[in-house]
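Q: Hi! First time asking for a complex rather than a single chain. Here are the components, and I think there are two in total. Is that enough to go on?
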Amino acid sequence: MSAGTRIAAAPASLWRGPLLYAGMAALLIGVGVLQGWNVALSILCFGLISAIMALGVNIAWGYAGIFNVGVMGFAALGGLAAVLVAQPPVAEAWAAGGAGLGLSLLAVAVTVAIIVLVRARMARGAARGWVTAALIGAGYAAARAAFDPAVDAIEAVNPASQGYLGGLAAPIVLAWPAGGLLAALAAWGIGKTALGLRSDYLAIATLGISEIVIAVLKNEDWLSRGVKNVTGLPRPVPYEIDLQASADFVARAAALGLDPGEASGIAVKGLYALMFAVVLGVLIWLAERALNSPWGRMMRAIRDNETAAAAMGKNITRRHLETFVLGSALVGIAGAMMVTFDGQFTPASYNPLRFTFLIWVMVIVGGSGSNWGSVLGGFLIWFAWVEAEPLGLWLAGGVVALLPEGSAAADHVQAGAPHMRMIFMGVILLTAMRFAPRGLIPERTGR
Amino acid sequence: MTDILNALVLFMNFVGVPALAYGSQLALGALGVTLIFGVLRFAFFAHGDLMAFGTMVTILATWGLQAMGVSLGVLPTALLALPFGAAAAVLAALSADKAVFAFYRKQRAKPVVFFIASVGVMFVLNGLVRIIIGPDDQRFADGGRFLFKVGEFRDWSGLSEGLAIRTTQALTVVAALIVMVALFRFLERTKMGKAMRAYSDNEDLALLSGVDPARVVRWTWVIAAVLATLAGVLYGLDKSFKPFTYFQLLLPIFAAAILGGIGSPKGAVVGAYIVAFSEVMVTYAYRKFAMYLGPQDWAPEGLLQLLSTEYKFSVSFLILVAVLVTRPTGLFKGKVF
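A: Yes, that's all I need. Here is the structure of the assembled complex.
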């Protein structure tokens, strides 16, 4: 990764990847034996989702060197897609405010059209700038005049449980590609303006857009209920309660020596894990195919020497846009899958440390540029993130034992323990960068 | 006439004064970011958390002083505690440099490597702050609340609108001005300041002229950390201290530094005030303001607010994008490599 790092002369052993994956599987099995299979499967499901996000980030970073710090925003857009696709529509809200929203959308469209027309006819200069600004102002006022009452009307419809437009009542699995599409559209818009800037500027810009996405999702209640959250999203798998009520299932669980409660949890999470694994499998197959295709070689050529690639006639900005959009789409898919798994959409729970920077730790630790490495990083870092909490509590327990029981200091240490994971993550990232800058499974080069 | 004066006072009270204070806090943060960028040549992503770290130590020291019965009268006790916080932040920044960044400097790694490393530093600082003081809101302002209050201003001027200036706001502006003047004098007059500017302009030439890079780097961290602590403490006194809010300040701070031209201290200050004023002006509801200026007995429908306060980050973002697209070097011709 860094220019001065010596690259090991011998290529990494072919066995390294499979061995590391086997080790990861052993860790999960260990959790299953020690902490229960429900916990292990839940870590596996989130690990699969994290792996897809890490794969998405790696496509932009490893293939093209694009530093995207807006992962959280794209993941949240994927989550929004789950709401918009799967929730039943609220007919009353559409009747109350649908027309007003349409009108404000029309006002925006008309404003844009007028601005484009006027700008085409006027000569460059200050006058054109002022006219454009005035038109933007007028269009904004017109759109707001239609928008505000419509939103008030929508949010007044049964606010305790609805107060939003609802979705399409389609199967929630369709939300996964839809989430990818939504994220890809957003990425296209951002990429069009911000790509081609130097990497740290792009980083700040993507950080900004992700904060804005979260702010919109928190405040536009008509869209997805804002901080009131959408809960009880439909599921692609059976409910635990239904399984427990089925005599057949209970009998089968008993045959395996499990009680129905635990067995139903395992069955549901197992089904999710299977579905997520299929998605990850397809995506990694596509990503590997792309990387080894002429397109992938071109991408790496651009990454390694932009000037030379440009001289060969490669359109660098366009290729960068492609990878940025593709990578963001993967993050959107994973975001939709995560909301499906959680069964609820809670905009306030999106935090850049967990949704953006943690994914970056996964990619760097796993190996930038290496798809299998990033996926492994996704599993491993998610595992570490989850298990850091009991570890922190255990460490805190050791400290607390030395302090007087029930004292303020003991409570304080106990309360701070979960935050130990931040320090763990920082140390893991810094250690990996320093001592294994090419990651656990380095990108294979020179073939 | 009185209507116009009333409108002006109203505007000053809700936009002018708060934005001036906020801009001063941003300016101190942006100066640190821009200095680090100029000398070390990377965007230091942990700046918000460094601010939080320094502020946290200041708060702890403030509590300690308060418990001992020490107070500054009208001024907040936190001013006395500030040196402790600044010292802690300097220590944190220097240790981060020694443990992390020095290695990559020796390797002459690409800026993006430093950048990712600063994310690691951010995680560690963030974790420390959350463990030590917790993720919740803390208020630590004491002393006199107001320089003068709305009612006092109204009685004095006879207008129907009042103007209030909080002690913390006045303190922020005064302190920021003093520090900025001192910093610019340092950069212009002293040998070290000149060395820093030379190093930032042209590293190789500066090295040839006998500038000691290790000292320049050390001084940069010291100054940036002190500025970060000051910015954080003033922001916390003015509003409140919450670790996550400090992380989010990264965006307006970087917007300010880039708008001014990253690497240019003068630009950082100007950019900070522009960002602060735009943010406050765009999220202010102009209803009453318009009522004073409009015809008698006329009231506009709605609040006349361009964007709700929750979207204030989008203002920094829009400024950022506009600058990057139209004039990437910023107002004062910063560096673009």
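A: Chain A touches chain B through 53 residues (CB under 8 Å). Let me know if you'd like any chain examined more closely.
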